[in-house]
Amino acid sequence: ILMYGVLIALALNNERARKLASKIVGNGWAQLFFLISCLQCFHWVGHPSEQAMLLWSVKMPLTVASICGLITSIILAPRAVIALVLANPVLAWVGTLSYSLYLWHPLVHSIYCGFYWDYVSKQAARAELIQYGLILVVAAISYYGIERPFLKLKSRFS
Asked: What does the mean pLDDT of the chain come to?
C-alpha cells in the first residue's frame, strides 16, 4: 500500500495530472463515493482462505483502489466535508498511532482470541470492541513509550 501512496504523490506532482485528477475526484461527492466504497470493501474483504483465495485476490486490489481514491480526493479537496471530518483531532491521533496499530494488532488479536475464544465466539460484537480497545491501548503505550523517544533521537543521528 505504501507504493500506491508514492505513486499518488508522484502523479500529483505533475501539474497536468493534478489538474485532471482535480476535475475527476477533487470534490466532496468523490470523497463520499470513495468513503462508502472503502467501508464496503473493509466489510467485504475479510481474510484470505484456501477456498476463497482467488476471490480475495480481486477484493484486495479493489480495497486498495478505494483507499487511494479517497486519499487522492482528500488531497485535492481538503475543505470538503469528509476531509474536514477526517481531520478531527481524535482521528488524527489515531493516525499518529497508525504504525504502532499496524505492528501490534496481529499479536494482540492472537493473544486475545487465544485466551478468550469462547467469549469471542459467543459475543462477537462486544469482543471486537474490547479487542480494538486493547489494540489502541497497546499501540499508545508503544508509541509514547518506545517510538516517540526514538524519534527524538533521530535528530542526533541524522
From this structure: 86
pLDDT number for residue 111:
85
Centroid of chain to Cα 151: 22
Long-range contacts of 108-114 (CB under 8 A, 24+ apart): 108/134, 108/135, 108/138, 109/135
Using DSSP's 3-state secondary structure scheme, residue 8 falls into: helix
- pLDDT of amino acid 86: 85
Instruction: Tell me the mean pLDDT in the region 119-123.
Output: 70
- Angle (nearest 5°) at CA 97 between 6 and 134: 135
Write the DSSP string, 96-136: HTHHHHHHHHHHHHHHHHHHSHHHHHHSHHHHHHHHHHHHH
Q: What pLDDT, in 10s, does the model give residues 30-81?
A: 999 999 998 888 777 665 565 566 666 777 888 889 999 999 999 999 999 9
| Nearest to 12, CA basis, from 1, 25, 2 | 25
Q: How far apart are CA 40 and CA 113, in angstroms?
A: 25
Q: If phi over 0 gives left and psi between -120 and 50 gives alpha, with beta otherwise, what is residue 46?
A: left
**Set of cell numbers at residue 139:** 499501540
